Write the structure tokens for this entry.
Amino acid sequence: MEYDEQNVFSKILRGEIPINSVYEDEYALAFEDINPQAPVHLLVIPKGSYVSLDDFTMEASEKEVAGFLFAVGHVARQAGLSGSGYRILANHGTDANQEVPHFHVHIVGGRNVGKMISLKDK
Ligand code: AMP
């Protein structure tokens, strides 16, 4: 899938859309989700132009993959979630209902987030 430079997270990386940023380094940017599903709902995105995890793990360098994952762990710790726990998730493609075609990991916590995401039919 071709990367769309006009997707909302690409605009965020270019500074065209405001965010509540919580962390940034050379590999990743983390910010609050605009429509939080839990008391803490953060998004971590790579700095590079990758559509999803599928694209990221095929095209990104080992440094980018490692740097990104370190950032996810750091952001969760920084948010104070290590003790109480949290869930990370990443949607890829149609069946996962991925909305924004720039790879991102959700970090949700701050309350018990249940056993697992609902897999029931709509
Ligand atoms: P996904 O369904 O995994 O693609 O999730 C996309 C997420 O991006 C959703 O949870 C949205 O609430 C979130 N989102 C969309 N636009 C923005 C924005 N401008 N700032 C922060 N989060 C956003």
